[in-house]
Amino acid sequence: MTYPETIVKAHPNLFKIDANLNRLVHKIELLNYINPVNIEQEKRNFFASKYNVNPSYHYKKIDFNAHKLQQALFSQDIESIKDDESRSFYMDVIYDYSNLIRCIETIGTGSKFYFNSLKSFGTPTEKDVDNARFILHFADEDFNQEMLPVYNASEAADYFKEFTKRFDFQFNVRMSTKISAAAMVQNNTQTLILKKNNKFSANQLKVLANHEIGVHMVTTFNGLAQPLKIFSNGFPKNVESQEGLAVFSEYMSGCLTLFRLKELSYRVLATDSLRKGFDFCATFDLLHNQYKLNREEAYNISLRAHRGGGFTKDHLYLTGLKEIYNFHMEGNSLDNLFTGKVSLSHAPIIDKWQQQGLAETLTHRNPGFDTCNNENPKLEFILQNLK
Q1: What's the rounded Cα separation, in Å, for the pair 337 and 249?
Q2: Global pTM exceeds 0.70
Q3: Residue 150: Cβ within 10 Å count
Q4: I need a surface site. Which of 38, 240, 278, 381 has the fewest CB within 10 A?
Q5: 245: closest CA among 303, 320, 156?
Q6: Contact 249, 369 (CB under 8 A)
Q7: Cα 262 to chain center, whole Å?
Q8: pLDDT tens digits along 196-220
């Protein structure tokens, strides 16, 4: 977007470094590389082995020179940014993207990737594990017809296209057999990717629409509308806030269920199993034999945790949900969290930049946040009582 020359002239070094970083990192998305290319074949092999042989995953080759990219990141003249807070922020940006590049570079290397993942995403604390177990102790709710998986990916795409009519943007939709989730947003191409062979329930369509489109796609397009490209590329440590906001969108729209909260809790336990040294078979055994998850669910959650060599991101959905829920219940506005791929911990700098004319308010709003449509008192009780 074109921006007032007076603003750019007042902050030339800030815009220059932001533009340089954009050229370096705007194509770098960890999720483009972390999903194995042989998911379905390895699932068949794993089931055929009676759950006794760890899958051997293969990954897309990286299409950039990681070493040169690291050099270019650290060659930026950050000291030329006059404002202390903005300078500190962009230093955090460089370290954050450096860690993400190390993650991508080491995908498939086992413990080397796992330790890089820890730097970027952390690992569950005992409190996080206690929260997961607290949720799992609730008895399952009665079966609801809306939970029956009956819609194919093509029907799901039609549903999402209809849902999108409430927003003023357009995005691409494509199918893939090489993603571990039922759906995901590819930020840098504004694409919603659907798992080609997945069957979707009516509830899951609502969940994914509010999660992927209502938050991830909205923040994608809001980020693109900002003068500073870092809103689009992503603030440091934004995953917890963005995923928390996306799950909170499910809650606000009335489609969050105990089943879904339990799914997020199993992800925490699977991520925690990495810290304990579990291999894929052991994590699967924990979920399938001890917690009695069906084998498809147990496999998918184990895959999410073990892909790359130990991917710890999944524990952040539940911690992020609690973070956003508390923030909202304290009476705070969530608007700034929709301005791009931003983090709650960096909210003060968004306010500052807006006051300085360096950041815009919302271009696209999610009307689903105007009213809370959750009608399940059990969910309310759980969210209030998470530690």
Answers
A1: 12
A2: yes
A3: 10
A4: 381
A5: 320
A6: yes
A7: 18
A8: 999 999 999 999 999 999 999 999 9
CB atoms within 10 A of CB 152: 15
Cβ(95)–Cβ(235) below 8 Å? no
- Record the tokens describing residue 32, joined without a space: 């483009």
SS3 of 286-310: the string is HHHHHCCCCHHHHHHHHHHHHHHHC
Structurally, how many domains does the chain consist of? Answer: 1
For residue 172, the enclosing domain spans 5-385
Alpha helices in 106-145 (DSSP H): 111-121, 126-136
Strand order in the sheet with 172-176: 172-176, 191-195, 183-186
Cα 81 to the center of its chain, rounded Å? 30
What one-character DSSP code corresponds to residue 215? I
230 neighbors 303 (Cβ within 8 angstroms): no
Task: With a cut of 70, say whether residue 1 has pLDDT above it.
Answer: no
Q: Which H helix or E strand runs over 248?
A: helix 239-253
Q: Are 236 and 119 in contact (CB under 8 A)?
A: no
CB 93 within 8 A of CB 236: yes
